[in-house]
Amino acid sequence: MKFSSYHPAINLVFFLAAIVMTIVFNHPVYLAISYAASFAYSVKLNGKRAVKFNLWLVVFIAVWTFLFSTVNHFGVTNLAQNFIGNMITLESIVYGFVVGVIISSVLMWLSCMHAIVSSDKVVYLFGRVSPKLSLFLSILLRMVPRIKKRARTINSGQKCIGNGSGQGGFGHRVKHSLSRFSIMLTWMNESFIEMSDSMRSRGYSLKGRTAFSIYRFDNRDRSLVIFLFLCIIVNIMGAMLNQTGILYSPMIIMNRVTIVSYLFYVAYACLCFTPLFLQIVGEVRFGQLRSHVEDSEGAGLPLAAVESMGVP
Question: By C-alpha distance, which of 250, 204, 206 is closest to 74?
Fold first, then answer.
């Protein structure tokens, strides 16, 4: 029931739609929905690591807003002067904040996409269209966590001999930082060579090579595709009716909010929060099935009785 258990094409369609709409739709309501959905879903998938990353993005939004409003001076509502005498306007502050929220939302959606779209899904999606591209993307996605793990391992080994990242003076740290970087480059080159030799020995570049996949497009996937495309179509209609954008220069101008506007807002919220809803429902269902299995094991029920309760 989790969103990650659906067909890889559905995962790709959703994240592409969410990222594109986040970039294109600069209306405050749409930005708030996209930011809240990406924030909650990333925390649900990645836990404390996502919380730290998202809080750093809040700091980034504040810094970006300050720098943007200091450098850009469009707008008619003057608020103050900066240190070089240029005016800081309300429109530049608001638009800088909007751009910062868009960038942060896209980064959080990408973190969710990295957690959901694994390397085997990338190979499945692009393997038949472009095998070389699928191989490159799968190697790239797999290499990023491996580099982090190898960097921690190298740093731990260097600490044992007094050459760690936080040991010694400034010159000592710079010297051995370059040494650790050299070790990392050497390991990456060796890893790529081993990987290419392995793929060549498996006949990856031969013609007529077939691909195995465990993914099937079933009725559950069809139902979700219909729902997602219905939400996407409704939001495209909202964009055609100028309900998804707002003018920030030279003044803030927004179309009048009507009853139909709430329909577009609800459709966008349904689209963005669907993966989070499926994740929560899947975890709840898994917990219920697990409790049924534990209760049946404690009661000593036979396998037939357990299957009759709907536990696979």
Answer: 250
